[in-house]
Design a protein that fits this description.
single chain, 236 residues, alpha+beta, Jelly Rolls, seven-stranded mixed beta sheet, 4 helices, 19% helix, globular
Length: 236
C-alpha cells in the first residue's frame, strides 16, 4: 500500500470511529412523531447534540439547529437514468456563520439535502469498501453507497463538487446557496442528479435509495433555522 493510500485509510477509519452513526435511534424531543409516521428517521452523531425536526402545516420540514448536528432521512427510491431532475424548495430564517466546508471540524452549514445511492461494490474503491464495513457495523445495518450533498452555506471558496472532509471517499458536496442568498423567502432548486453524479464520480449513478435533510452548527456554536419542502423527480 502506498503512503497516500495508508493516509487515506487512516482518515477514513478515524472518521468511522468518531462519527458513531446511530440512524435508528428514536429521540422524541428531536424528531416530530408525525415525521416518523411518514417514514423519517434521524441519524445522530456520537457526543453531538441533535437538531430538531418538525412537520409544519404546509407539509414542510422545519429544521432547527442550535450548536448541534444530525440528519433526518427516509427511504426514497428513484432512478436518475429515467428521472434525473430533482426539485425542491427551501427557506432559511437564520444562518450559521460562513465556514470552510472543506475543513474537518469547521464545516458548519445552515441546510443540506442528501442523496444516498445504492451500494455497487464492484465500482467502489478499497477505501470505500473498508469504511463502509466499519460504518455498517456501527450503525447495526447495511448502509447505502455513495452520497451527494447539496448545501446552503459555506464561505464561497468551495467550487463545484468537493470531498466530504469526514468521508473523502464516496461522499461529495456542492454549494447551491451561500451567505449571499436571501433569508425568509422560499427558493426553488432544480438539480440534474445524473449530470451531478457523473461530475462527482465520473460514471453513471445507480438508483437513489434515501433522501435526507439536515443542518450543522456545532463547530461554530451558532444557530440555524430553516425549512425544506416539495421534493419531486421528473425527466426534464
Amino acid at each position: 500500500m502506498q503512503p497516500k493510500d495508508r493516509l487515506g485509510r487512516r482518515r477514513l477509519l478515524l472518521a468511522a470511529a468518531t462519527i458513531g452513526l446511530s440512524p435508528t435511534a428514536r429521540i422524541a424531543a428531536a424528531l416530530d412523531p408525525n415525521l416518523e409516521t411518514d417514514g423519517w428517521r434521524e441519524m445522530k452523531f456520537r457526543d453531538k447534540p441533535q437538531n430538531r425536526y418538525r412537520l409544519d402545516s404546509d407539509g414542510s420540514i422545519l429544521v432547527e439547529s442550535r450548536a448541534s448536528v444530525s440528519v433526518a432521512w427516509r427511504d426514497l427510491r428513484a432512478d436518475p437514468l429515467r428521472t434525473p431532475i430533482l426539485r425542491w424548495r427551501w427557506r432559511l430564517e437564520r444562518a450559521v456563520p460562513a465556514t470552510d466546508l472543506t475543513r474537518k471540524g469547521g464545516d458548519d452549514r445552515s441546510l443540506s439535502v442528501y442523496l444516498a445511492f445504492a451500494w455497487v461494490p464492484e465500482r467502489a474503491s478499497l477505501l470505500e469498501r473498508s469504511v463502509r464495513g466499519i460504518l455498517s457495523a456501527l450503525a447495526g445495518q447495511e448502509l447505502p453507497g455513495r452520497l451527494l450533498t447539496y448545501v446552503w452555506g459555506g464561505d464561497g471558496r468551495a467550487d463545484g463538487w468537493f470531498d466530504n472532509p469526514y468521508l473523502p471517499a464516496g461522499a461529495k458536496l456542492r454549494v447551491l446557496r451561500d451567505g449571499t442568498a436571501p433569508l425568509g423567502v422560499w427558493l426553488e432548486e432544480r438539480v440534474d442528479v445524473l449530470a451531478d453524479y457523473r461530475a462527482a464520480f465520473g460514471e453513471d449513478p445507480p438508483p437513489v435509495e434515501r433522501i435526507g435533510v439536515g443542518a450543522d452548527s456545532d463547530d461554530t456554536a451558532s444557530e440555524a433555522r430553516g425549512a425544506v419542502r416539495d421534493f419531486s423527480w421528473s425527466p426534464t
